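$ ./design --mode recover --in tokens.txt
reading tokens...
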């Protein structure tokens, strides 16, 4: 991590943050007892809720869980090592709405549960979100002084409780199921956070965009089409819908696409992740981006729609 930070130029709004990687061993299901088989850069979580009913009430956070204790030590290490050099990130990717239960239950079994026992799934979701909030606060208290706020695996910083809600599992379900079963947990999560950006991962999750945009506590949406899909700019209707709803927008695009993004989207509330081979190229791109940026609200917002 120190080698990477020392050999990287962070331009624009980018900043050095001390992170640890996320192969799955520092997640809420691991803290609750799931076995995790680790590879060098990924991990496989083994479900533990295998009965027909979802016995979620037995799930409690134990302070003596080895992975939880390891994660706390890793967080303390990050705070020490980052001091004077970078911003310490919350080192865990705890898991998101739906995804946590899918790890604990198994994705195929959870899909049947949504059809057969949706009320149980909702109750389990709310229980898990209560545990998520407890775990998040433990790590936030460790990092907030050194970070003067917080950052996470997501490369944004905020002067308070920040995290990126997500539900990758929702790729496989209908908008109605998402709204009825998983949106309440996301609302609870947003109510606890000061700042948030929803990680909309994969084109199958675009079906849930309308529900997400109705959430008043959601600050921003990241649009990530997924592996093998076209650039985020290929999905301009979705990008413009987010901006028209008054939410900030985050996209990850190639340097050659920055001009088009700033031509076709509002510059206000737009965060562009990109990269350059050299510092000189990065500085030149930043200079041009300032020239390309403008407010084209009249092109994007219809009468009655809310501006950023």
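writing sequence...
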């Amino acid at each position: 991590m120190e080698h990477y930070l020392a050999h990287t130029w962070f331009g624009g709004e980018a900043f050095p943050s001390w992170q640890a990687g996320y192969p799955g061993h520092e997640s809420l299901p691991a803290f609750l007892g799931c076995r995790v088989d680790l590879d060098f850069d990924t991990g496989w979580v083994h479900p533990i809720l295998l009965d027909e009913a979802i016995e979620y009430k037995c799930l409690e956070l134990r302070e003596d869980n080895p992975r939880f204790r390891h994660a706390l030590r890793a967080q303390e290490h990050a705070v020490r090592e980052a001091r004077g050099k970078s911003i310490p990130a919350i080192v865990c990717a705890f898991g998101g709405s739906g995804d946590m239960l899918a790890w604990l239950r198994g994705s195929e079994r959870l899909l049947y549960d949504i059809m057969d026992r949706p009320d149980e799934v909702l109750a389990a979701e709310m229980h898990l979100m209560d545990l998520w909030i407890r775990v998040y606060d433990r790590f936030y208290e460790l990092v907030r002084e050194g970070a003067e706020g917080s950052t996470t695996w997501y490369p944004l910083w905020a002067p308070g409780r920040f995290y990126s809600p997500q539900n990758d599992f929702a790729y496989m379900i209908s908008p109605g199921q998402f709204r009825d079963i998983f949106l309440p947990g996301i609302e609870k999560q947003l109510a606890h956070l000061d700042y948030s950006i929803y990680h909309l991962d994969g084109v199958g999750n675009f079906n849930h965009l309308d529900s997400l945009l109705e959430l008043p506590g959601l600050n921003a949406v990241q649009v990530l089409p997924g592996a093998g899909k076209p650039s985020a700019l290929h999905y301009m209707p979705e990008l413009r819908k987010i901006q028209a709803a008054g939410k900030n927008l985050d996209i990850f695009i190639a340097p050659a696409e920055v001009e088009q993004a700033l031509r076709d989207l509002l510059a206000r509330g737009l965060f562009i992740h990109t990269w350059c081979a050299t510092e000189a190229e990065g500085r030149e791109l930043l200079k041009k981006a300032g020239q390309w940026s403008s407010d084209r609200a009249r092109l994007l917002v219809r009468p009655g729609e809310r501006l950023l």
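exit 0
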